[in-house]
Amino acid sequence: ANWSAAMQAEWADDKGAAAAPGHRAKLIDGLNTVRSQLDEFDPDVILIWGDDQYENFKEDIVPPFSVLAYGDRTVRPYETKVGQFFPSYWEDEAKDRDVLVKGRPDIARALVASLIADEFDVSYAYEPLHDEQLPHAFLNTILFLDHERKGFDWPIIAMPINCYGSKVIAAQGGWKPFATELDLDPPAPSPKRLMNMGAAVARFLRDSPHRVSIIASSSWSHAFLTDHTWRLRPDTPADETLYQALVAGDYDTWESTTTDAVVHGGQQEVLNWFALMGAARELDANLSYSTFVETHIFNSNKVFATWDVVGGSAGS
């Protein structure tokens, strides 16, 4: 009875069963729009920023961000940490299905060298430390942008970010029950630092001979990370503030956002987007498409957006 009218309507009397197809349709429309622009641009390589959710960033080492200079890898989506979530949509797929994920270690190595020269002491890896598949933020990007299973042949460079920061080890990149006392870890890299890192990556890509697309992977505020909403719904006002700034090209609002505000809003994974916004600012990119998919009961709001860069990279 204390829920908003919109949240009650979405939940209805069937626990959201009737609302789910409409929410999914909006997501598929956003994915199709991004995919169509990738098809049209046909990049040589795609750089993806995504969170490492206690997959390779574990007790033995937790860098602020890293470059995975992987070569081609064959992965099995249904054997990953979050693979149990896939069958709800791709229920007819074989559970031992292989997916070839192409890499460009040559470009990745050059990127690392450029970042170090630009005073970003970035770590890098040629092989996984723990997760033999591929962290889900990157694998999901490939699977969702290929939801029609027509193929995803572009090589990728995965660049994981320690988005979970103070809870990456304490909560194993997720959550613990209310009132659980945690020995908090050091924080994630700040929004400003990630925007500056994104700008440095963009400069390297702009000056390279390659056609590159840049993608930030993640939904926005997650209900299960938002304690002040009792983990029942995402922090939509916080998301709307960043989204309106995105539409307006208001990079100052993004850059002035604090780490504490990100954690309060359950927006840890939006840190991937801060890197993208830094790249968009550096490249003077033009926003060509955006949409805000709001929800009250399906865990997280989702944003789709694409930018065009004349003679250079495209971001999404």
Describe the protein in words.
- By secondary structure, the protein is an alpha/beta fold.
- It has helices at residues 5-11, 20-41, 105-117, 136-145, 191-207, 236-248, 251-256, 259-264, 271-282, and strands at residues 45-51, 66-68, 73-75, 99-101, 123-125, 156-161, 212-216, 286-293, 302-308, 314-315.
- It has a four-stranded parallel β-sheet, with helices on both faces. A two-stranded parallel ribbon has the order 2-5. The chain has a two-stranded antiparallel sheet with strand order 3-4.
- A hairpin with an 8-residue loop joins β8 and β9 (302-308).
- α5 crosses α9.
- It is globular and about 60 Å long.
H and E order: HHEEEEHEHEHEHHHHEEE
Overall shape: it is globular
- Mean pLDDT, nearest integer? 94
Q: Please count the helical segments.
A: 9
Low-confidence stretches: none
Q: Could you tell me the strand content as a percent range? A: 5-15%
The end-to-end span amounts to: 38 Å
Briefly note the structural class of the backbone. Answer: alpha/beta
Helix content: 25-40%
Largest sheet: 4 strands, parallel
How many beta-strand runs?
Answer: 10
Main sheet: strand order: 6-1-7-10
Rg, please? Answer: 19 Å
